Amino acid sequence: MRRRVLATTLGFGLLAAAACLLAPLVGSTSVRLGRVFDGSLPFDDNLDAQIFFIARLPRVLAAALVGAGLSVAGVVFQALLRNPLASPDTLGVSAGASLGAMLAITFRADFSLAGISSVPLASFVGSLGAVGIVYSLSSARRRGATTMVLLLAGVTLTAFLSAVVRFVQYVADFTETFQTTRWLMGSLDVASYTPIVAACVPTTLALAALARLPRVLDLLSVGADAAAARGVDVTAAERQALVSASLLTGAAVSLAGPVAFVGIIVPHTVRLIVGADHRVVLPAAGLFGATFLITCDVVARTIIPPLELPVGVVTAVIGGPFFLWLLFRNA
Q: How would you classify residue 256: left for phi > 0, otherwise alpha for psi between -120 and 50, otherwise beta?
């Protein structure tokens, strides 16, 4: 198993690294890799290097972080809820993050923290609020009803917060409505490395917590009773998985908005390739999710030049048919 995990991680890691290296070369302006790393030219005189490192690489790294976070969160939610159609949107985390961003845009909140603007900060706070509500409801549940309570609470909270988001859009003026609509489509307009570094903090914490849970997720995906019979503290494990996956989702949505379908497409694609063992699926999903969203962003940037589509449009076009196929396949 160790060799299998190592080989899988290495294979998908090389794929993700190639995507991170090659994606910044693609765009309306041609960039040559040899010239980018030409040390004989000062950086201020090297236009290729400026385009690569300043204009495109932050966007590519953001896509990698968001794709990895949403994909791993999708794997965890599907195991936690024992539902193959579960996704990072299931428990209302994305809706909470969206509401936070909508409020910041509509009320023109003008503040920053450590170089991070108000919209991603408000988005992450909104995601934490949604997690807090669902966590409180799950804590108040009767023993043995965790999955059902989480699922029902998530569906209800998503519907409620989505209604509030629409109300905020209704009372906003035209300019604010345009901004919020574009943000809700999912966008990787990242112009610096600061928000990426900020999103890395909760992402790293969540991944460190999930690194202890692969075998537990295998047991939880079979059933709570089976996990408990093998000595798993089901309540603690479910809460740890819930909080960790929600942190991943909140960090991803605060950086790029609600990018749809990544948390469904990638986990199922990876399982078709490597099987269902979470020791293999978790790292493979994270790395393949990064590659997938980088590729979608390249398509979004280049398919209708000189326009740049929101990346969420591309993932939705791909994810919609995939979701329908998955739905009827499991019917």
A: alpha
Tokens of 89: 């949107």
CA–CA distance, 308 with 110 (Å, rounded to integer): 26
Please tell me whether residue 113 adopts helix, strand or coil conformation. strand
**Tens digits of residue pLDDT in 31-84:** 888 889 887 888 888 999 999 999 999 999 999 999 999 999 999 999 988 888
Residues 6+ apart with CB under 8 A from 74: 86, 87, 88, 262, 263, 264, 266, 267, 285
Query: What pairing do the DSSP bridges indicate for beta strands 116-117 and 112-113?
Result: antiparallel
Q: For the whole model, what pTM was predicted?
A: 0.91
How would you class 66 by CB atoms within 10 Å of its CB: exposed for 0-12, middle for 13-18, buried for 19 or more? buried
* Cα-to-chain-centroid distance, residue 28: 27
Q: Are 262 and 315 in contact (CB under 8 A)?
A: yes
Q: pLDDT of 80-106, one tens digit each?
A: 888 887 888 888 888 898 898 888 888
